[in-house]
Prior knowledge:
heterodimer, A: 121 residues, alpha+beta, CPE0013-like fold, three-stranded antiparallel sheet, B: 405 residues, alpha/beta, FAD/NAD(P)-binding domain, Immunoglobulin-like, five-stranded parallel sheet, five-stranded mixed sheet, binds flavin-adenine dinucleotide
Amino acid sequence: MKKQMICISCPIGCMLDVEYEGKELISVTGYSCPRGKTYAETEISNPQRVITSTVKLEGGKHPVVSVKSNAPIDKALIFDCMKEINKVTVKAPVKIGDVVLPNVLGTGVDIVATSEDSGNE
Amino acid sequence: MAAALKARELGVEKIIILERSETLGGILEQCIHTGFGLHYFKEELSGPEYAGRFIEQIRQSDIDVKTNTMVIDIDSDKVVTAVGPDEGLLKIQAKAIILAMGCRERPRGALSIPGHRPAGVMTAGTAQKYVNIDGYMPGRKIVILGSGDIGLIMARRMTLEGAEVKMVCELMPYSGGLARNIVQCLDDYGIPLKLSCTVVDIHGRERVEGVTIAKVDENLRPIKGTEEYVECDTLLLSVGLIPENELSKSAGIELNCITGGPDVDEMRETSQRGVFACGNVLQVHDLVDYVTLEAQIAAEGAAEYIKSGGTDEKKYAYAVHQEGVRYIVPQKINIASEKDVDLYFRVCRIYKNSKLIVKIDGETVISKKKPKLAPGEMETIKLKKDMLSKLKEDSIVEISVEESL
Lengths: 121, 405
Ligand SMILES: Cc1cc2nc3c(=O)[nH]c(=O)nc-3n(C[C@H](O)[C@H](O)[C@H](O)COP(=O)(O)OP(=O)(O)OC[C@H]3O[C@@H](n4cnc5c(N)ncnc54)[C@H](O)[C@@H]3O)c2cc1C
Ligand code: SF4
């Protein structure tokens, strides 16, 4: 099978022409850097995304603090992952990089804070 | 922050950042999605992480920062007036000023949607602040008007938080957002993007109950008979950004009618000597990486101006947008410039397999094939030193798009 896809690895957004069979990539053209090829491979075999969201924060300047998955996770798991993220409450102070939810859904990926909140003094 | 750090590095001693908000970082603080810094840090960071790297460097420097401090006036002698929490009214005589006030979203008033003003109509950026900073969801059933990046990002964000995003309507026949955002924010979640489509009516008295959408013709006028009612409790507007230039106007700086930002030269110096501009106040950027680079250029310009006292007389060549190009920044180039100059511009519509042509006084100096050009993606072209040497006073640098047959 053939299809066109847009590489989302960077803002340039190259248009890729891919040929594949099931989950197997046969050929890909149109990328401007090696990341485009890798993207096509994972997109055909097992599409993944980084998730960004917020978790509840106690004692902070703001009621929530932003988080992300520190590695991409399977697209199919995104909504389950969001459920887990929404159960979490952390306490201020929080620093960028603090793990707020380790090994989410057993994926080996951690949810980490992406902003800081020194809390209410 | 990038401009301040660069100016410090270049030996400028007394630098102050005036910020009206409580924290540094500007719009980045509410952009919690990743996609920042791919060029500059070669990493995919979220907005607060990107800002965080600069905040850390500012903390470690001796650069003065005043937050909760709003600049209310800049006069032609470079006296900056601000109001802050500590000293109340603050007056600072600057040698050079770098404007970095960003932009604001086009509000509903700028659109002509009739009807009452029920609750539930807001800009996408306001919704972004509610969800990402204040931690509450402004609605459950959402229609988004306009496919700017903020609208696309919010379509995904609200979906993840359990809202039903029914559709994104775009007036133009193409999206104003980045292609990658259409893929990862709409396609990933099966949210339809309706092109050549607009909202013609908003229903509901107290709260939005629904909207009527309609297709538009090539003159962007709604087509009778294509109206469709869509039930929703919230309408998000992502219909464009306008550079924040009230201050620039009061300082007597000439603004460009297309970008909405000041006219600048290759060092980002405005029509007022010693006043520079960078970031979204100058032109609306898609990528923060370019904002950072632009800030550093402005800082070089400001540092140079302080050293030389601004007594040098600049002779300019002018960048003129031709067929297919909407605007170019910088608008003018000092012919004595010794460094390569990057020209940033946007095209007027989508082009496939076309050519970008750059001419200096009628002579073609660059002809570059482009498989794809879109208004939503800022383009850049480098004028190398050998090309710059061709520039004379009042030379014309033209950029145009040529469609291949
Ligand atoms: C929703 C959204 C999504 C984006 N997504 C991406 C992305 O995925 N990747 C990417 O690379 N880029 C992205 N961008 C683009 C990029 O982040 C912005 O263009 C960039 O951060 C703008 O920086 P700025 O400094 O010009 O403006 P701003 O961040 O708006 O900063 C302007 C600052 O000036 C202050 N100010 C204004 N007026 C005054 C005054 N009178 N006195 C004192 N202070 C004042 C404001 O409070 C503000 O802090 C996105 C932008 C938006 C809006
Ligand atoms: S192929 Fe490379 S250059 Fe093209 S969009 Fe992907 S990452 Fe960017």
